[in-house]
């Protein structure tokens, strides 16, 4: 068989062209003499996938033969972004493909644009999962990601009359050349039904029967590492109807009814929930969670059993990381299988589960913490609810033992929140069922210990760790900013293949932060990127923006805690100030600016939607005020997504990360922006704190209340303080209300609330310090060499924020796993 295989595709021009043209003819069944850019994209993608499959197969075979310890990353979201350039760069054939395609009349860059953006995630959490996959493959960690293959990813955002309108993202409509459908990898997943319990020599076991059964089918996407032959896997599950179980209904003559039942099964993996900060408690969401967790756990067990006949080594061979509590039910599913199906004693089953799982928390916002009603769980997953109660019983016994008489602690720590509608606190459950828990930035992890997980930190000291987030420099420097990547390679005299996997070597750039030649080239790269963004803005909004202005960017999900609202209040202030200043004084007083804000609002989040409308209304007014001209332009960047980010971030000169201290767990775009030479204006929140530590506070514009001051202000609000709106802020509120920006009545509720003690996110507290920081921005931009020095220092000292560093820490401190390098094929 080996000889039959046309093994290992060459990287010479002819081999590449032959493989592409073959796919045009045999896979696409199109004429090899005429195919458009889309056809060329598809055929190239298949040709690249062939290469990935070769190393994918070798990698998995090698891991199995060597019985390698594996890491499984479970996440309801993977926000991968486009795959073609990433794959070409990682396997180091971007140039050969460019040449090969050029020769037959295609521009590779144009083909990149043909790819849909696979957007199976909301924002930071999903994108983090994608960066982690890239780093794990690059670091040669035996890893698989597991998640859901949604038919509809995050909605597409349109803007109509200034309002957000959502439309479905049916990303599979033109097929997906990157995935491999696994007809043979399927599992049955049960919902509802009932449990029969029996006593098995002192152990209570259950038999779960009845209810509905659906099939989980696997779809694999190869995840190539950078500069390695290793290729990992992302396995996504799709729900399908189960054939065996509906014969009865068909035979009873209810044909339509039976088909309807089948469609219900497919519905489970139809759509990604578009929330990123509030928990809805919807049954379908719980179904999605259990569906993918059950299939995943069975798949992991099946793989383990291929090479092991006892359970003794399960936790030594498998580590499962939970990306937030969304996949938390996976630990209960493992426990259930071990007890009810594998017939292990409770203690052994518990030990295996406990030593296998670890959990990452991504937020301290109470409204985002998952709590599932016991009624809902009991109905959908009756045996799991039994086990959760049992776990809670044993756990609370331990708490009582440890803190005798401390009843309030017992109720605080209970996995069940009491009340009319009892609820399972999924974060607490995840802590109890995991060997390690981590936050995502130093400040965030400290806050976890002091606030929501305080009791747990006291009872299990050392269990809560920090793992500061990172981003992959392959996508977030090299792919999105080729000009900068080349400048870096030229300057530090290293191939990109070297520094991209050892990002702290960027420190060498520090020596050039005042070097004239270097600065000249740096400025050229930035202005090329600004031109690229200018074109993008024109194309997507119709708005003309100048390039000789400061590009000021804020792109992230729209949320009150992130304070896009404060940003737009300042824009209004700046506008009013320009208007008050006589024409001849304006040029010396104001640096020309283009303020760009982008991001999606959860469809049910009224205040976030009102903020979008306000931004658009303000933009409309200012951009059409001839009197202001090019001194100030405001743009709402529609449909912010990974591919847009790759255009926007490299063009930014200033980027805003201005959340209320203590609310943004980490932030990851802050890291992408500094790597691309944008200066941060920001608060001491999330990873900004560590960025300041690395690059020096003097290279950022830091302002605003610290966590303790936020606490104090909130107490004052609570106690009736209302004197916090100064005259300059009052003017801005008045301008909004008086109709200067048209009908923005949707924002009036927020204004009223903020004025009347509802300023929970401290906009008014931080507003004046923010103005001062903004003045400093203008002043610094006027001293352009200084500005460049600050941005270059930022790039030079951004090395810590490579997700390679993050993953190395997870490997050492949590998973205890090391690299397994696949030998290069000969
Ligand atoms: C919950 C329930 C129902 C439906 C959806 C959700 C949900 C989905 C995503 C809740 C939260 C979700 O994501 C939160 C998130 O993106 N958190 C961000 O994680 C980043 C990576 O750690 C951090 O950098 C950000 O600070 C944090 O906000």
UniProtKB/TrEMBL annotation:
It is an enzyme of class 2 (transferase). GO terms for cellular component: cytoplasm. Keywords: Allosteric enzyme, Carbohydrate metabolism, Glycosyltransferase, Pyridoxal phosphate, Transferase. The keyword Cytoplasm does not apply. Its EC number is 2.4.1.1. One of its GO terms (molecular function) is glycogen phosphorylase activity. GO terms for biological process: glycogen catabolic process. Belongs to the glycogen phosphorylase family. Allosteric enzyme that catalyzes the rate-limiting step in glycogen catabolism, the phosphorolytic cleavage of glycogen to produce glucose-1-phosphate, and plays a central role in maintaining cellular and organismal glucose homeostasis. This is Alpha-1,4 glucan phosphorylase. It comes from Stylonychia lemnae. The lineage of its organism: Eukaryota, Sar, Alveolata, Ciliophora, Intramacronucleata.
